[in-house]
Design a protein that fits this description.
There is one protein chain. This protein has helices spanning about 10-25, 30-45, 65-100. It has 2 domains: about 1-60; about 60-100. The protein is rod-shaped and about 80 Å long. By secondary structure, it is an all-alpha fold. The longest helix is centred in the last third of the chain and has 36 residues, at about 65-100. It is built from 3 helices and no strands.
């Protein structure tokens, strides 16, 4: 469905160019995702041996999802560290309240 002067040789290149174009011309990420899936199903379909929806951009910087995953892991690590360090304090306050 996309009219390029020369079509990409690899499916990864096609996927990256399609996602970049959909993301650049959409108002939001959801519109870009919807447009991507529609154009992908029109062009490739489900029967040509490619994965149905491989969301990969052409850049090497990563995408928003990978950054959210990294920050989520750091946030969970911080929460677990706080729980581990505060457990003796909370336990001793509980014991002091019960026995005092």
């Amino acid at each position: 469905m996309l009219n390029w002067a020369s079509p990409p040789a690899l499916i990864d290149d096609y996927t990256g160019l399609l996602w970049d174009r959909c993301f650049a011309n959409s108002e939001s990420s959801f519109v870009a995702l919807y447009t991507f899936t529609q154009v992908w199903s029109w062009d490739i379909g489900a029967g040509k041996g490619a994965h149905s929806i491989p969301l990969k951009g052409t850049g090497k910087q990563g995408d928003l999802t990978s950054w959210k995953v990294v920050w989520r892991q750091w946030w969970y690590l911080g929460v677990v560290a706080q729980v581990v360090t505060m457990t003796p304090v909370i336990f001793s306050a509980f014991i002091a309240g019960v026995l005092g």
